[in-house]
Amino acid sequence: MTTILVTGGAGFIGSNFIRYFAQQRPEFNIINLDLLTYAGNPENLIDLEGSPHYTLIQGDIADQALVYSLFKRYPITRVVHFAAESHVDRSIMAPDAFVRTNVQGTFVLLESARQLWLEEKSKLEEEPRFLHISTDEVYGSLKSQEPAFTESSPYAPNSPYAASKASADLLARAYYKTYGLPVMITNCSNNYGPYQFPEKLIPLVIAQALDHKPIPIYGKGDNIRDWLYVEDHCRALLRVLEDGRPGETYNIGAQNERSNLEVVHQILQILQDQQADGYPLTDLITFVKDRPGHDWRYALDTTKLNRELGWRPEVSFTTGLERTINWYLGQRDWISRIKSGLYRDYLARQYGSAI
């Protein structure tokens, strides 16, 4: 059977993609390579445990011997590369981990694919394809009235996280240009949905509100992001993986631009309508000192993806947010299990006495 290697598949977007891919392409074997750090949770794919078509391998994408051995052992013809350190705040505190995973790890994957697919010309059942998942943050920050980023916008990363992803993107591009490795790159806007670790804004707000604990908001909460429901993202990724042009970059966004404070108020209003005790959830909003280099606004122009591959988002922000909140309401045990002492220590370090 044809085999796909998904890196970081136990994380938020990766696990949603694996579940979606398994439903859409049941003829594939799926190898999930994940280091299982704080945000990688095998529980996210517990419904696939025992499937003969799914294998979870705990390992580091920067481990060259391991990655090469996987390409030798399995007939991998597809790679979808999610594995990354992805939280801006953590990159400010400890940038070295971001360089190792996001830059060195991407290099190891590209080099292993190059050796096995192109140099050693291992027997493949079909033409291989390598999809590298990136972020809108590589483009830097927009002012309020500036047009959205296109695929030709210059890179201007403003955080160690964004810089490490920009470096990985450029490596991927170079492997196509220099060696002809069939690489495609996607840059997505902020994702939200089920299984997201509660350090990111939406699940953090939900988790804090459910516990009636302070909800920390950087600055005045007026930084703007475009919000993409994770299922829409997964649909776009499958389209690019199968029909995108090697060497090309595709932006994936939903044109759901909202300030952080708007998002928080919308979440709290939905939760307020569902709770019986009448606790004033907006009283939990706590403004904290802004983080260094906080980008003002992100927005992506998705004309290319719409035109070439016919993809458009299907889930409105209101619908996606309601689905997300309802999922978390039904998964309080999941939230409790992943809120380890390490996670609580991180919150205290990052937001101080506000938490």
Question: What's the oligomerization state?
Answer: single chain
As for the CATH topology of the domain at 3-191 and 229-254 and 298-315, it is Rossmann fold
Number of helices: 12
| First-residue to last-residue Cα separation | 50 Å
For CATH, the homologous superfamily of the domain at 3-191 and 229-254 and 298-315 is named as: NAD(P)-binding Rossmann-like Domain
Q: Which segments are poorly predicted (pLDDT under 50) over 5 or more consecutive residues?
A: none
Structural class: alpha/beta
Strand order of the largest sheet: 3-2-1-4-5-6-10
Strand count, sense and closure of the main sheet? 7 strands, parallel
Q: What string gives the helices and strands in order?
A: EHEEHEHHEHEEHEEHEEHEHHHH
Helix content class? 40-55%
By CATH reckoning, the class of the domain at 3-191 and 229-254 and 298-315 would read: Alpha Beta
Rg from Cα: 20 Å
Strand content bin: 15-25%
Shape: globular
CATH architecture of the domain at 3-191 and 229-254 and 298-315: 3-Layer(aba) Sandwich
Average the pLDDT over all residues and give the rounded result: 93
**Number of E-type strands:** 12
Give an overview of the whole structure.
The protein is an alpha/beta fold. It contains twelve helices and twelve strands. It has a domain at 3-191 and 229-254 and 298-315: Rossmann fold. The chain has helices at residues 12-24, 64-73, 88-93, 95-119, 160-179, 201-210, 230-243, 260-274, 303-309, 317-329, 332-338, 341-351; strands at 3-7, 29-34, 54-58, 76-81, 129-135, 183-188, 190-192, 215-218, 224-229, 249-252, 257-259, 285-288. The strands form three sheets. It has a seven-stranded parallel beta sheet with strand order 3-2-1-4-5-6-10, with helices on both faces. Helix 1 links the parallel strand 1 (3-7) and strand 2 (29-34). The mean pLDDT is 93.
